[in-house]
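Postdoc handover notes: sequence design on the structure in folder B. Input tokens:
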């Protein structure tokens, strides 16, 4: 079925990126991290809490509370409320929902916030009840948690495309170098290829530095009208295009591609640019293989050629290649639950607003952010991507 050209995102501004600093573990609940994130987003914005009439909430550890409970807890009276439970694809999807709400007049100022806690035993509890599928078909057989899932995907990818661990090492080492200039990253110590290759095995072929580190923290930003942002003197970024695709290629035996491949032409058509025009990219990197897939499926290289692309295009800011996961990505910053799906978007906003001190991409005018999440046994169901431009 032929689809019409989507409406653009004229009149929408994205501003006030904020990270509630990550910590390895916390006994505070998700609502605390969401509240701190909201306060951080609003600080220095000139916008009072009562002026926020739209809210997007993303959290995997909020239960038994929900988005309405968060609004009540924060004393907010809202005209528009949304919950986005799409894992690592949630940040881009939250931006899309909020932008459309502002365009439609359903809300004037939308705060998009994500936050999760990580207390002792919370991760094991989460994976044991992640979904009905995992509860019935995975957990009872001892294959719980994402490491086994991504070991399966990584092994299949390596076999199909003749990729070695040394290829993933280059990505991880270069992202760690970016993280060293990011005070918000939890892992900033230098890492060599030898460190990566000799790290203890987790689930073959995955070793320690292939696996994202669970932690607690929050990410957030504001979406509002361009005129409102200008009146407040807020520096902002503009949305050039957004796509999402859920449950792409369900017939594939194991996931070796995602919904980006199906939607990338629409993304670039919306933005009026191509991959060659992108100044930097933020991919969702819970495991290195997923960044490889995103580079391929978003058209930066042919399918199965990401290892070659990474060898010839440095990810390190200032090296003259394609700056990639400029703050270190999740593999060096940490994964604060579903806030990890906002991390790349918040980092992209910092780059476009010129606020990425120590790791600033020179002449960062156009950035691409991609998301991936909600993983069951052998695939992630949700994919998303957006292209953002520096505001006027």
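Designed sequence:
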């Amino acid at each position: 079925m032929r689809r019409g050209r989507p409406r653009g995102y004229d009149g929408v501004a994205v501003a006030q990126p904020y990270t509630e600093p990550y910590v390895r573990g916390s006994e505070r609940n998700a609502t605390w991290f969401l509240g701190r994130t909201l306060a951080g987003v609003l600080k220095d914005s000139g916008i009072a809490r009562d002026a926020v009439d739209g809210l997007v909430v993303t959290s995997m550890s909020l239960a038994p509370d929900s988005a309405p409970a968060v609004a009540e807890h924060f004393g907010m009276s809202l005209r528009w409320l949304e919950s986005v439970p799409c894992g690592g694809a949630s940040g881009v999807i939250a931006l899309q929902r909020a932008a459309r709400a502002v365009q439609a007049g359903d809300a004037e100022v939308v705060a998009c916030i994500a936050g999760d806690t990580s207390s002792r035993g919370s991760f094991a509890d989460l994976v044991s009840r992640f979904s009905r599928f995992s509860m019935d078909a995975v957990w009872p057989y001892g294959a719980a948690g994402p490491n086994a899932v991504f070991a399966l995907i990584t092994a299949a990818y390596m076999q199909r495309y003749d990729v070695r661990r040394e290829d993933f090492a280059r990505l991880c080492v270069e992202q760690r170098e970016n993280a060293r200039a990011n005070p918000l990253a939890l892992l900033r110590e230098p890492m060599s290829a030898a460190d990566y290759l000799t790290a203890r095995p987790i689930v073959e072929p995955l070793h320690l530095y292939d696996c994202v580190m669970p932690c607690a923290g929050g990410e957030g930003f504001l979406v509002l009208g361009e005129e409102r942002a200008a009146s407040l003197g807020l520096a902002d970024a503009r949305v050039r295009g957004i796509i999402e695709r859920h449950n792409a290629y369900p017939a594939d035996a194991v996931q070796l591609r995602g919904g980006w491949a199906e939607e990338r032409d629409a993304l670039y058509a919306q933005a009026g640019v191509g991959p060659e025009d992108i100044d930097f990219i933020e991919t969702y990197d819970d495991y290195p293989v997923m960044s490889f897939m995103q580079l391929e499926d978003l058209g930066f290289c042919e399918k199965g050629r990401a290892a070659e692309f990474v060898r010839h295009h440095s990810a390190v800011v200032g090296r003259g290649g394609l700056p990639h996961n400029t703050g270190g990505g999740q593999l060096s910053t940490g994964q604060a639950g579903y806030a990890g799906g906002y991390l790349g978007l918040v980092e992209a906003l910092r780059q476009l607003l010129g606020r990425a001190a120590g790791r600033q991409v020179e002449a960062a005018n156009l950035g691409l952010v991609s998301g991936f999440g909600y993983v069951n046994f052998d695939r992630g169901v949700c994919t998303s991507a957006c292209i953002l431009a520096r505001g006027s």
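Context for whoever picks this up: The domain at 12-121+216-231 is CATH 3.40.47.10 (Peroxisomal Thiolase; Chain A, domain 1). Don't rerun without checking with the PI first.
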